[in-house]
Design a protein that fits this description.
The protein has helices at about 20-40, 45-90; strands at about 1-5, 10-15. By secondary structure, it is of the alpha+beta class. A hairpin with a 2-residue loop joins β1 (about 1-5) and β2 (about 10-15). The radius of gyration is 22 Å and the shape is elongated.
Length: about 90
């Protein structure tokens, strides 16, 4: 499927295997973030705005990945504890 998105006033044609809603939503989010960054740093050119926005997105993604990894470790520890508990209960019987 081919879809059309607009980012910072420029049209892009994107091919996707899905219905395009995820790409459309991502493009709208990116456009909003770029616009907000451009408003905060009026003296920057468009290239700098894109780089700073990309760095912000990568930083946000890394924080989310770290949180996910921490939660996964906690879940794995809980599963291990439950497994040990079940094993000890079964041995008592």
């Amino acid at each position: 499927m081919n879809i059309q998105i607009v980012i910072r006033g420029r049209q892009f044609h994107v091919r996707t295997l899905e219905d395009g809603s995820a790409i459309t939503e991502a493009a709208a989010d990116l456009d909003k973030r770029l616009t907000e960054q451009a408003e905060r740093s009026r003296s920057f050119d468009e290239h700098s705005v894109v780089v700073i926005t990309a760095l912000n997105l990568i930083s946000e993604m890394q924080m989310m990945r770290n949180e996910f990894d921490d939660q996964l470790r906690e879940i794995q520890q809980e599963v291990l504890s439950l497994k040990e508990l079940v094993s000890s209960v079964l041995q008592e019987e």
